Amino acid sequence: MRLILSIETSTPTCSVAIHRSGELVAQKLVQEEGAHSKQLTVLIDSLLEENGMKLDQLAAIAVSVGPGSYTGLRIGLATAKGLCFGLDIPLIALPTLQILAEAYRQTKPETKGAILIPMLDARRMEVYASAFDAQNLMEIFPAKAVILDEYSFSELKEKPLIAFGNGSEKWRNICLHPNMTFSIQPLFPEAQYMGGLAFEEFLNNNFQDLVTLEPEYLKEFKGTQPRNKAW
């Protein structure tokens, strides 16, 4: 029975989970400012301890690689890399929007025949978005930064579309797409939804290089420069 630790830090929610051969054993999460840097390793330690497990029992570690929070993604990936290096186990990378789409599939089973549009807020009218076939989670178009307007996703016309995630709320009142519906259920990518995706990657030996793997930011990070003080 393969144990995989999943780490999700792309949003303000910091979550970790243990799956056994793709089935959820337990999850721990916290939502507070600075949780990724302060709580991630604490969550991992307590998750394992509470379930009578040790790090050396892990077969692999799966991590969400973006898009999402610059700081959160860096911390999550660095932690996953460090653990994989120390334990000499493989690293699995999962796209954040695919995790969010899987979360919707698990919580809303009546999605057959639809196209899923997971969205994460990227401020103002911009979102990170992708599109997946609800039946098999096949990617229809890759993750990208989208500036929303009334006619966004108009190229997807043949099937019902379902938009969800914290980026979809601001689009609801202006969307003119005739086949679009919106989920009102608050939904975030969490580690508990990564198990099946991670186990499939594990069985296919689809592992990542610890040196070269980087987060998928989609947008260039722009730090703020401190203002010069007038004395």
From TrEMBL:
GO terms for cellular component: cytosol. Signal peptide: none annotated. GO terms for biological process: tRNA threonylcarbamoyladenosine modification. Gene3D superfamilies: 3.30.420.40. One of its GO terms (molecular function) is transferase activity. Keywords: Transferase. The keyword Transferase applies. CDD domains: ASKHA_NBD_TsaB. NCBIfam families: T6A_YeaZ (TIGR03725). This is tRNA (Adenosine(37)-N6)-threonylcarbamoyltransferase complex dimerization subunit type 1 TsaB. It comes from Aquirufa rosea. The lineage of its organism: Bacteria, Pseudomonadati, Bacteroidota, Cytophagia, Cytophagales.
